[in-house]
């Protein structure tokens, strides 16, 4: 089974990211992934995330969104964790603005694996103590460490 700390890196765990809007946050994610993985096209990543949002918001509640999509040319699951400097409207199910984004990009063919990873993310973020720690840490390394520690505890 793939674990979150295997697909998330400290370089893709960032605090105090400028948000602005849902669209700007998704553009930021696409740019970040494309910079780190030049084989993946920034515009394709962005369009895939937007297309998924059009099916229904990935705003999960409690200030969290889990933007995710299948991505052409994606070799393996990739995750990004962002804490925004200010909450943004993400059309979340509870109407609350979002300040934590846990992104999951998976290969086009991924099915069970994709769902399993989404479940891992959702169950981790369902725990209020994890959300609090993610919101309190000061550095990107510490943000990543919260996820690694939470996974060890499961």
TrEMBL record:
GO terms, biological process: phosphoenolpyruvate-dependent sugar phosphotransferase system
Protein name according to UniProt: PTS IIA-like nitrogen regulatory protein PtsN
Family annotation (NCBIfam families): nitro_reg_IIA (TIGR01419)
Gene: ptsN
GO molecular-function terms, A-Z: protein kinase activator activity; protein-N(PI)-phosphohistidine-sugar phosphotransferase activity
Superkingdom assignment: Bacteria
InterPro entries, A to Z: PTrfase/Anion_transptr, PTS_EIIA_type-2_dom, PTS_Nitro_regul, PTS_SugarTrans_NitroReg
Domain PTS EIIA type-2 as annotated: residue spans: 6-150
Pfam families, per database record: PTS_EIIA_2 (PF00359)
UniProt organism field: Azotobacter chroococcum
SUPFAM superfamilies: Phoshotransferase/anion transport protein
């Amino acid at each position: 089974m793939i674990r979150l700390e295997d697909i998330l890196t400290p370089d893709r765990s960032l605090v105090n990211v400028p948000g602005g809007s849902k669209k700007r946050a998704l553009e930021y994610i696409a740019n970040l992934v494309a910079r780190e993985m030049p084989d993946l096209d920034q515009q394709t990543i962005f369009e895939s995330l937007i297309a998924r949002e059009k099916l229904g918001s990935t705003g999960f509640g409690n200030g969290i969104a889990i933007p995710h999509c299948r991505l052409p040319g994606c070799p393996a699951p990739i995750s990004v964790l962002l804490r925004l400097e200010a909450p943004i409207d993400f059309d979340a199910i509870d109407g609350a603005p979002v300040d934590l984004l846990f992104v999951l990009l998976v290969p086009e063919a991924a099915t069970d694996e994709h769902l399993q990873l989404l479940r891992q993310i959702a169950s981790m973020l369902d725990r209020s103590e994890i959300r609090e720690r993610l919101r309190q840490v000061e550095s990107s390394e510490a943000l990543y460490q919260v996820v690694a520690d939470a996974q060890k505890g499961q």
